[in-house]
């Protein structure tokens, strides 16, 4: 049989065509798009799934419940010097922190440059002395910053869910090592088997240094994991430490989580 010398070229051309049809760029990464509807601006990879959403007239508002819950990490660290984020999305948490934590520096890693390219559409501020958005692999970013973060928010997803590189024991160990001595991380667990992630967090931080909460109106969980000891304060005192600009915007979250944190401290 005669060899088709053009076969590799044809296969590559076919693969590029499939990528274009599936909304992928030459780099193989999915290209998101902006959808404007009913007063909202959404970041989507596919029509049926929303990655991020904001209110068009209130871009700093944390609209989705779990993004609000993750900021309960401030109960542990109410005045972080450096806050890290894995996953940019539509930038809801970045905008909230940049607006309401003016003394905090923020470092964000996003592995998809097509997501970063849409930051202006979602009102994400330009990089400045307080904000840096880095295009990199999230696991590599965290591993390269030992002892850096007072607070680390992990919400890295692609169209399939949490990427494999953000699901390993090594990743969670590196998250622990990327925290300061009293640092805390919060991660969104929207997966079929959240317990597998929780088990890795407990192995990295210790059984008593992990708190998992369900989202009452959603099908995901938020896990908090921390280094150091819990503050010996009651729930009201924990909430009172959080900056007023944040506290007044998270009145549905902080008291509930403070009670859970005190209960967790008592039980452990």
Uncertain runs: 13-22
Summing up helix and strand content along with how strands pair, one would put the structural category as alpha/beta
**How can the largest sheet be summarized?**
7 strands, mixed
Calculate Rg over CA atoms. 20 Å
The fold-level CATH name is Rossmann fold
Descriptors for this entry?
268 residues; single chain; 10 strands; 24% strand; three-stranded antiparallel sheet; 32% helix
Characterization of this structure:
The chain is an alpha/beta fold. It has a single domain, classed as Rossmann fold, CATH 3.40.50.150. It is built from 10 helices and 10 strands. The chain has helices spanning 7-21, 65-70, 92-100, 113-116, 138-143, 169-178, 194-205, 235-241, 244-247, 254-267; strands at 33-37, 40-46, 49-55, 82-86, 105-110, 131-135, 149-154, 179-189, 210-214, 221-226. It has a 7-stranded mixed beta sheet, with helices on both faces. It has a 3-stranded antiparallel beta sheet with strand order 1-2-3, with no helix packed on it. Helix 4 (113-116) links the parallel strand 5 and strand 6. Helix 6 (169-178) packs across helix 7 and helix 8 crosses helix 10 (254-267). The radius of gyration is 20 Å and the shape is globular. The model is unreliable at 13-22 (pLDDT under 50).
């Amino acid at each position: 049989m005669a060899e088709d010398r053009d076969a590799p070229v044809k296969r590559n051309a076919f693969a590029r065509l499939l990528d274009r049809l599936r909304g992928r760029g030459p780099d193989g990464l999915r290209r998101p798009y902006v959808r404007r509807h009913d007063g909202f601006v959404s970041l989507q990879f596919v029509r049926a799934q929303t990655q991020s959403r904001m209110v068009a007239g209130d871009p700093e508002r944390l609209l989705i419940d779990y993004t609000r819950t993750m900021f309960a990490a401030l109960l542990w660290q109410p005045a972080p010097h450096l806050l890290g984020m894995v996953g940019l999305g539509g930038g809801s948490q970045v905008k909230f922190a940049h607006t309401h934590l003016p003394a905090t520096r923020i470092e964000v890693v996003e592995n998809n440059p097509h997501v970063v390219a849409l930051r202006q559409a979602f009102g994400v501020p330009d990089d400045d002395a307080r904000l840096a958005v880095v295009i990199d692999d999230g696991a590599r970013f965290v591993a390269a910053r030992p002892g850096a973060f007072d607070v680390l928010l992990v919400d890295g997803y692609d169209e399939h869910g949490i990427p494999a590189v953000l699901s390993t024991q090594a990743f969670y160990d590196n998250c622990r090592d990327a925290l300061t001595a009293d640092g805390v991380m919060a991660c969104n667990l929207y997966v079929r088997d959240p317990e597998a992630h929780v088990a890795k967090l407990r192995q990295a931080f210790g059984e008593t240094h992990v708190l998992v909460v369900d989202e009452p109106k959603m099908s995901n969980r938020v896990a908090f994991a921390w280094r150091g000891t819990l503050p010996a304060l009651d729930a009201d005192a924990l909430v009172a430490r959080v900056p007023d600009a944040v506290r007044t915007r998270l009145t549905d979250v902080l008291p509930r989580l403070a009670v859970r944190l005190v209960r967790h401290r008592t039980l452990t």
